[in-house]
Write a structure and sequence with these properties.
- With 262 residues, the protein is α+β, with helices and mostly antiparallel strands.
- The protein is 26% helix and 31% strand.
- The protein contains 7 helices and 12 strands.
- Strands 1, 4, 5, 6, 7, 9 and 10 form a 7-stranded antiparallel beta sheet that branches. The chain has a 5-stranded antiparallel beta sheet with strand order 2-3-12-11-8.
- A hairpin with a 2-residue loop joins strand 6 (120-129) and strand 7.
- The longest helix has 17 residues, at 90-106.
- The relative contact order is 0.18.
Length: 262
């Protein structure tokens, strides 16, 4: 399987841990514990895997899943153009992709459609191609990059949570100046572990995975690590739904190092 499009209103996974592989990407889903009061799941994701790239979208809606349904359907309807861009040479691809994704989110027809839904969604786009990763983040979905070169400097996150950005009825892209975060990072030589998660994992009672160091210890392999994360928060009675995307990328070519490196 090399693609997945899912929103939690379809299959909520309340009290159920779901583990699935989409190409190299492990998708773990847990809708939260009914014993803690959970009744629904408003997360969503879109995963496409190409020959030399992975496209991911991870969403965390609130009030209802309508905004996540609208956004996943909208981006999926533009898949052919997105994949055309993803297959461009890496030197030009990321700048082309960012322009295109932002243009879609700024589109007036789409923004008008957002006014018809109940609720809003945070959304994180993340794409890996070659030895680079690009992301565009609206809201509080988190992305991590784990590698010894980085953890030696206590560097774990790619982005920071932003608590007042959304797409939907309240829409960041309706502002005179749309607000979002984006970036590009070079992966390190060797094995890089990427992990994207909605906030149930971070806000679990007892905060077992509040910082990146705790997550990195568990994520020795993507599938086993993600299952351990989800079984732990289930045991601790997490209410909020959690969706995790995780995969390893091995980089063999040289990467940027300081000039005085031995």
């Amino acid at each position: 399987m090399s693609e997945l499009v899912w929103v939690g209103n379809e299959t909520p996974f309340v009290d159920v841990i779901s583990m699935e592989s989409v190409g190299p990407i492990t998708v773990g889903r847990f809708g939260g514990c009914s014993r803690s009061g959970q009744t629904k799941n408003e997360d969503g994701c879109v995963v496409w895997v190409g020959v030399d790239w992975e496209w991911t979208m991870l969403l965390d809606a609130h009030d209802t899943a309508e905004s996540a349904v609208l956004l996943t359907g909208y981006l999926t309807s533009h898949r052919l153009e997105i994949e055309r861009i993803l297959n461009e040479p890496v030197e030009s691809m990321f700048s082309s992709l960012e322009r295109y994704v932002v243009s879609l989110l700024e589109n007036k027809t789409f923004r008008t459609a957002c006014q018809t839904v109940r609720g809003e969604t945070a959304c994180l786009f993340l794409v890996r191609k070659g030895k680079y990763v690009w992301w565009l983040s609206v809201g509080d979905v988190l992305a991590y990059l784990f590698h010894p070169d980085l953890s030696n400097h206590l560097q774990y996150k790619l982005n920071e949570r932003q608590f007042f950005e959304w797409i939907g009825r309240v829409n960041t892209f309706d502002l005179p100046v749309p607000c979002y975060s984006r970036g590009i990072r070079e992966l390190r030589q060797g094995i890089n572990q990427l992990l994207l998660t909605t906030d149930g994992l971070i806000e679990c009672p007892g905060a077992p995975f509040e910082d990146g160091k705790q997550l990195e210890r568990v994520l020795t392999t993507s599938y086993v690590g993600v299952k351990t994360l989800l079984t732990t928060i289930e045991r601790l009675g997490v209410r909020d739904s959690t969706t995790i995307l995780a995969w390893a990328v091995e980089i063999e070519e040289n990467v940027t190092m300081p000039g005085n490196a031995k």
